[in-house]
């Protein structure tokens, strides 16, 4: 058991790891996620001794990083992950790549073999000596800062620099490589908080980095452009959530009378029930966004660079519309850019607009795309995405967090499920790695204590779903909702319509996930939902609980999700229905292929 009232290291001589963990605790870090091992065990020992930081051991280092990522996204604090050398260190890379691409502040503490063994055949040697590869070369491309701590005293310089790099724009991971003997070395501790050291950005979300002075001429020019526009479409992104600029965004939209769309990874930055809400932009989004863009005089990007997933289907209309971007980085589309800390930039522009609030022009709102009907008989044994997502919506608490994984089920959730009014709606589109949600939701739930939902397919579950065990061990309030179509369904849909038929390797034998999880974890609340009403009841039952719940439902592998690249597939499916008649249409994955399961 971790001691409850252990003191932080005071001034005097302590182990480097005690000093390190003490500084993290003083800076507001509450959890360290990771997987143990010989070359990182001293860090975990220090976490145990400090007591004010909770150590959470994951099943895989990728999930440990996503736990730190989910922790950071929901608290706006620095997420911390710790892993050992060798394979453990290498397993961090995909998770750090997601945090790098999505601008999430994470600090990775990575163990290394003792310095005296490096270059002499050390186990898991990544020093770059004697033919070994250099871990710094591996981590540098997926981090904002990467350094090796060669001696105990250098940590006092490197830790502040690492934290500052992780939290400065553009945010992202920082990596400290820690040889085992250096971790154990004695260091003079000042007892001073890392927040008091020069050039350090504390991890507490209430303390912002010193903002650069805004260009007043550029601010005035942007305000003039917006003031003169008859119709404005705002497309808001993840940086609104990362900087907690929701109130500033809402006030700007009210003064402009603007429609507000969101990127797929930022559904929660604007009230989805507001009459101004236009829907989700891009390939998982709503046709109304493109309609509003065609009618707009100005498209205002707020906290998004508008990557391809967020602008798919909009390029032609964007090229014909004046674009203005507010945020810390320039966009991927041409336009006028006002760089700066987003809340400050929003306030500066809003202050130059008339205080009266404009009426929002009429628009159709985020109407869902109509999808082809399920195949005959499928409805009897599976739950369509639309019905399943509607059941989730009916049960979702207003303050819940939602983490949506990659795949057909994820695309449906982004398109159909409104964001909770007071919680995060997170989609990891930086790298789009399957299985991200399992660790990320646990990190978020442990950090905030709120009920947190995972919406994932069976493919994502088979990658990292055993983190359910971590949720059980730590009584994390996570509800895992698994859309089981016994397939890598997005691949299968592409194969059917683009490659002449589904290959059997993307269709799996039927698996009863609910029965398996119930047998593995007797204390876990498990439900195998047989229809939408059953799914809704199971979710409502799990909401008040203190620990995890697991709900599995069967879905149709051939069902086409509301995903723009699949739009032509839906038209082909409707044409087939019209020719053959729905009563005679074969299940798509039963035509001309081997049926497995």
Question: How would you sum up this structure, described in words?
Answer:
The chain is built from 25 helices and 20 strands. It is an alpha/beta fold and 597 residues long. Strands 3-2-4-5-7-6 form a six-stranded parallel β-sheet, sandwiched between helices. The protein has a six-stranded parallel β-sheet with strand order 11-10-9-12-13-14, with helices on both faces. A six-stranded parallel β-sheet has the order 16-15-17-18-20-19, with helices on both faces. Helix 17 (385-395) packs across helix 18 (408-416) and helix 17 packs parallel to helix 24 (532-542). Mean pLDDT is 90; it is low at 1-6, 193-209 and 582-597.
Describe the secondary-structure layout.
Layout: E1 12-15, H1 16-26, E2 31-35, H2 41-50, E3 54-57, H3 61-75, E4 79-83, H4 87-90, H5 93-102, E5 106-112, H6 135-139, E6 145-148, H7 155-167, E7 173-179, H8 180-184, E8 186-189, H9 216-227, E9 232-236, H10 238-242, H11 246-256, E10 259-262, E11 277-280, H12 287-295, E12 298-302, H13 308-311, H14 315-319, E13 322-327, E14 336-339, H15 342-351, H16 378-381, H17 385-395, E15 401-404, H18 408-416, E16 425-427, H19 436-448, E17 452-457, H20 458-464, H21 468-473, E18 478-484, H22 489-498, H23 513-520, E19 525-529, H24 532-542, E20 549-554, H25 567-580
Helix pairs in contact: 1-2, 3-5, 3-19, 9-15, 11-15, 17-18, 17-24
Distance between the termini: 45 Å
Average pLDDT taken over every residue? 90
Beta-strand residue percentage: 15-25%
Helix proportion range: 25-40%
Q: What class do helices, strands and sheet pairing give?
A: alpha/beta
Number of helices: 25
Strands, count: 20
Strand order of the largest sheet: 3-2-4-5-7-6
Largest beta-sheet details: 6 strands, parallel
Low-confidence stretches: 1-6, 193-209, 582-597
What integer value in Å does the Rg equal? 25 Å
Shape from CA axes? Answer: globular
């Amino acid at each position: 058991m971790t001691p409850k009232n252990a003191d932080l290291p005071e001034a005097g001589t302590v182990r480097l790891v005690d000093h390190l963990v003490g500084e993290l605790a003083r800076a507001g870090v509450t959890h360290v996620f990771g997987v143990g091992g010989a070359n990182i065990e001293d860090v975990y020992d220090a976490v145990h001794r400090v007591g004010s930081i909770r150590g959470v051991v994951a099943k895989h280092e990728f999930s440990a990083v996503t736990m730190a990522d989910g922790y950071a996204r929901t608290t706006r604090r620095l997420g911390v992950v710790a892993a050992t050398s060798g394979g453990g260190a290498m397993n961090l890379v995909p998770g750090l790549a997601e945090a790098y691409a999505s601008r999430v502040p994470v600090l990775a503490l990575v163990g290394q073999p003792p310095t005296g063994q490096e270059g002499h055949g050390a186990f898991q040697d990544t020093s770059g000596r004697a033919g070994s590869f250099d871990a710094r070369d591996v981590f540098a491309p997926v981090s904002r800062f990467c350094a090796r701590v060669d001696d105990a005293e250098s940590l006092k310089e490197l830790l502040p620099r690492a934290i500052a790099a992780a939290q400065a724009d553009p945010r992202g991971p920082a990596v400290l490589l820690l040889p085992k003997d250096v971790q154990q070395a004695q260091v003079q501790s000042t007892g001073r908080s890392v927040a008091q050291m020069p050039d350090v950005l504390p991890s507490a979300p209430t303390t912002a980095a010193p903002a650069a002075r805004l260009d007043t001429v550029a601010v005035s020019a942007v305000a003039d452009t917006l003031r003169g526009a008859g119709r404005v479409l705002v497309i808001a992104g993840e940086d609104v959530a990362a900087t907690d600029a929701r109130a500033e965004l809402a006030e700007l939209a009210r003064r402009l009378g603007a429609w507000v769309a969101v990127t797929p990874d930022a559904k929660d930055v604007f009230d989805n029930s507001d009459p101004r809400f236009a829907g989700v932009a891009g390939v998982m989004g709503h046709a109304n966004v493109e309609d509003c863009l065609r009618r707009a005089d100005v498209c205002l990007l707020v906290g998004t660079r508008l990557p391809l997933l967020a602008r798919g289907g909009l390029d032609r209309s964007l090229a014909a519309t004046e674009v203005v971007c507010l945020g810390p980085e320039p966009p991927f589309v041409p336009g006028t850019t006002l760089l700066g800390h987003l809340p400050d930039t929003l306030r500066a522009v809003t202050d130059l607009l008339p205080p009266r609030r404009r009426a929002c022009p009429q628009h159709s709102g985020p109407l869902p795309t109509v999808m082809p009907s399920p195949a005959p008989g499928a409805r009897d044994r599976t739950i369509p995405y639309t019905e399943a997502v509607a059941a989730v919506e009916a049960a979702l608490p207003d303050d819940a967090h939602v983490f949506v994984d990659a795949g057909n089920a994820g695309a449906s959730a982004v398109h159909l499920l409104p964001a909770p009014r007071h919680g995060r709606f997170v989609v990891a589109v930086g790298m789009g790695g399957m299985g991200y949600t399992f660790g990320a939701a646990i990190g978020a739930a442990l950090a905030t204590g709120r009920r947190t939902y995972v919406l994932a397919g069976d493919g994502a579950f088979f990658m990292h779903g055993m983190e359910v065990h971590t949720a059980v061990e730590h009584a994390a309030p996570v509800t895992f909702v698994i859309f089981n179509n016994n397939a890598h369904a997005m691949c299968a849909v592409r194969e059917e319509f683009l490659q002449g038929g589904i290959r059997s390797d993307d269709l799996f034998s039927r698996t009863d996930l609910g029965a398996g999880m119930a047998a593995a974890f007797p204390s876990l609340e498990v439900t195998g939902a047989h229809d939408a009403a059953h799914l809704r009841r199971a979710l409502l039952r799990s909401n008040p609980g203190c620990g995890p719940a697991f709900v599995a439902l069967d879905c149709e592998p051939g069902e086409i999700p509301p995903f723009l690249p699949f739009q032509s597939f839906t038209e082909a499916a409707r044409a087939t229905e019209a020719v053959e008649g729905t009563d005679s249409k074969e299940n798509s994955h039963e035509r001309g292929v081997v049926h497995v399961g």
